[in-house]
Amino acid sequence: MKLLRFLLLSLFCLAFAGLARAETPPRYKAVAFDYFVLFDANSVIPAVEAAYPGKGVEFTNLWRAKQFEYCFLRSITGRHADFFEVTGDALAYAAQAMKLDLPPATRERLMNAYLTLAPWPDTLDALRRLKAAGVRVITIANFSGKMLSANAEHAGLTGYFDELLSTEVNATYKPDPKAYALGMERLHLAKEEILFAAFGSWDAYGAKAFGYPTIWVNRFGLPAEKLGVTPDVVAPDMKALLELVLGRS
Fold first, then answer.
1. What digits encode the pLDDT tens for the residues 196-217?
2. Quick one: the chain helix, strand, coil %, rounded to 5?
3. Of residues 34, 101, 176, 237, which has the active-site annotation?
4. Is 122 among the residues known to form the active site?
5. How far is CA 93 from CA 53, 98, 224, in A?
6. Which of 20, 93, 108, 118 is the one with CA 20 to 30 A from 243?
């Protein structure tokens, strides 16, 4: 009889503990993602390599660096442009800098690679878990609305987002504070209720300086920017993000 009571009590305690864990609310009401946290920026390399054999990695790195350099320059000079247009301008620069031909057909194939990026292996599971927990999921991305939608649709992820939010809606680029403010405006939440997930260290700096709790998902293992502001968490993948938001992996 004592053994039976002990077993029943143990089962009750385990069930209660499990219920308590299940009912623990997420630490944040929403997560705002930069798109490269979810999609592999290097998944354009095969298309570049097919166009320019032996130069895929070098070309891609120059192309991507120029994309964001043009964003920064356009922000400073107040000459905003659609990010897909910026991507095309950066592509033309990279080809010219590396003394490579860029015929129209090649240009179209390479531009389309930015509309069909591959999601990271842990993206789908992370989005599923966040949505199941009632966490709202948006982007705050420099990508144009066209680029956001095309990639989400191609990967079958559209239904996991509450909004695919592009900074083009107020003609800004990150790290302009007005770009980060879009998250609060669209979600109607306070800064401390939104976790920002950055791919680039510069973006983590911008989000944290704005006031968001910030995780830098450092997919490429890069050093941090030396700007005097650090994110709350630095991690190589989504596991730490899920633990931060949900209290479990």
1. 999 999 999 999 999 999 999 9
2. 55, 10, 35
3. 34
4. no
5. 18, 9, 27
6. 118
